[in-house]
Amino acid sequence: MSDSDNLNKYKPASENFEFREYPFYWVMRLGSRYTQTMEIQLKKVNMNITSWRIGLILRENGTLSMTEVAKHAVGRLPTITKSVYKMQERGWVDVKQSEKDGRVTMVGITDKGLETINTVIGSTSKTIDRAFDGLNKNETDQLNILLQKVFNNLADD
């Protein structure tokens, strides 16, 4: 079998297509399994997966615009906005207008939010460790590189 025939098994339009060889099949299964597993863990600490992602992003960045949070949390702006305001009610984030541009809403993590995220990191660390069991640093780095390449290939022009 030629290289092009081998590559065609990844393309749904090909007669050689094999769904179990389709990278997006595994990406979606992985994403779904990760979400389901984390939701079980997060429910124990009264958090959902969207708040978890927002918290991790703000833990690293401190303060971002609502649009930037939505971009990195991989969510639709209305969904992220709703989650952010629920997090604000719980004292996990502060929400205010940008001093530079009043049309922009800024979101910053509070000390309570940081403490909550750090607690959740502790309670979910076994799940994360299990997910990467058997992968060394180079394999994990390569996985990130490959996923970023595919992501960038699909970027809007």
The main sheet comes to: 3 strands, antiparallel
What is the number of helices?
7
Radius of gyration: 19 Å
Mean pLDDT across all amino acids? 91
SSE pattern, N- to C-terminal: HHHEHHEEHH
- Termini distance? 35 Å
Helical proportion, percent range: 55-70%
Shape: globular
CATH H-level superfamily title of the largest domain: Winged helix-like DNA-binding domain superfamily/Winged helix DNA-binding domain
Structural class: mainly alpha
Q: What's the CATH C level of the largest domain?
A: Mainly Alpha
CATH topology of the largest domain: Arc Repressor Mutant, subunit A
Point out poorly predicted stretches: none
Supply the number of structural domains.
Answer: 2
Strand percentage: 5-15%
Strand order of the largest sheet: 1-3-2
Describe what this molecule looks like in 3D.
By secondary structure, this protein is mainly alpha-helical. The protein has seven helices and three strands, in the order αααβααββαα. The chain folds into two domains: 1-43, no CATH class; 47-124, Arc Repressor Mutant, subunit A, CATH 1.10.10.10. 63% of the residues lie in helices and 8% in strands. A hairpin with a 7-residue loop joins strand 2 (93-97) and strand 3 (105-109). It is globular, with a radius of gyration of 19 Å. The mean pLDDT is 91.
